Amino acid sequence: MSEIASKGQLRLAYLRWAIFTVPLILLLGFLSANFAPSGEKNLWYMRLVKPEGMPPGWVFPVVWSILYILLGLALAMVINARGSRMRMPAIVLFVIQMAVNLAWSPVFFGMHQVQTALILLSVLFGLALVTTFLFGKVRTGAAILLVPYLAWICYAGFLLYRVNELNPDASRIVPARGSDQIQII
Fold it and tell me: Please, what are the domains in the chain?
C-alpha cells in the first residue's frame, strides 16, 4: 500500500535532513578555514595591501557562517525532494562546488597563491551558478537560498582581484612565522 505523505511528514523529513546538512557544512567550512590560519591570525595576509572596501576581519566568519547555514538548508531541500529527476545531478554538482569552496582557504591563506585562489573563485562561481539553476529545477526555495552565496562570491572575487593587483608578488611575501604556511612534502 502506498500513501502520500502529509505536509507535516514532509516538513519533518526536511528538518531531519537539515539537522544533518547544516552542521556538516558548517563543520567542513570551519575545518577548511582552520587548515591554515586565516584572516587576522595569518601574518602573511596581514602584510598584504588591502583594497578599499575590504570589510573588517570579523565580518568574514559571520558571513560565511550564515552562507553555510543557507547552503545546508538548500541542500536539505534538494535531498528531501524525492522523485525529482534533477535531484541527483544537483546534489553531485553541489558536492563538487563545495569541494572547490573548501579548497579556497588553504590555497589562499596556506599556500599564499593569490592568482590560483582567483582562478578557484572563478570556477567556484561557475559551479555555484549552475548548482543554483539545478537546485531551482528541483526546488525554487533552494535556489533562492543560494542567491546570497552567489552575491558573496562575486564580492569576494572583486576583493581578491584587487588584492592580486595591489600585491603582484604576494606569494613572495614572507610571514614572520613558518606556521602560517602549508608545507607540501
Answer: 9-180 (1.20.1260.100)
